[in-house]
Amino acid sequence: MAKNEERCIEKCLSSLSWCDEIILGDTGSTDKTIQIANSVGAKVLQTSFEGFGATRNKIVNTIEADWIVCFDADEVCTEELKQEILSNIFENNSSALIAPRKNFLIGQEVKHSGWCPDFRHPVAFRKSDCKYEEKILHETLEVKGQTKRLKSSFEHHSYPTLKSYMDKINKYSVLGAEELIRKKKKIKMASAASHSFFKFIRHYFINLGFLDGWTGLTIAIASAYGTFFKYSIAYEKQKKSEKMLTS
To answer: What residues of the chain score a pLDDT lower than 70?
Structure first.
């Protein structure tokens, strides 16, 4: 799934050239993402974005395959992980395969800060046994059966600049606020302050972010910032809804 990922999409798709078919679920790119995908032989499926979970499921449902290998547009599969995925698919003993992700911020590998070790949703799964949660943000893959943890890692090059990192934080703050409202939680500004404070503590101290130097401090501050505005936006929207109901 991708939108405006011309910076890294070629490297991502090329690392998956060993798959029988590569499908790019494009959610409205206005840059060269689609042209690049076509140039490397990928099939482009254009679809609307309906939240991460629902959109992923929509794309998966169009695929006719027993096993699906799934990577984000800013992730790169390594040769070692490719071999491990293939051997485990052929062994046919698991329903999903999960692998460690190496995260990079402005070109520097992050070794602490809650970013390492990082096991996100599986890199490969049996279609009949799995489905994504219908969540707007931070969706997980629900697996019926065994999930096997692999040893080989893959690379995540999501944030080449501080601007790109803050753009993603701002986007996720808005989506996270929508998720909070969907859960019908009563939000207070005190929630924004407390959750952001503990987010900083967790990343910088509990997850040893201080060992990552300035990178770790940046992650802790940015995470606290994003959390504060996620709750603040949800609070603002709830207050507006309450005024509309009482007017």
So the answer is: none
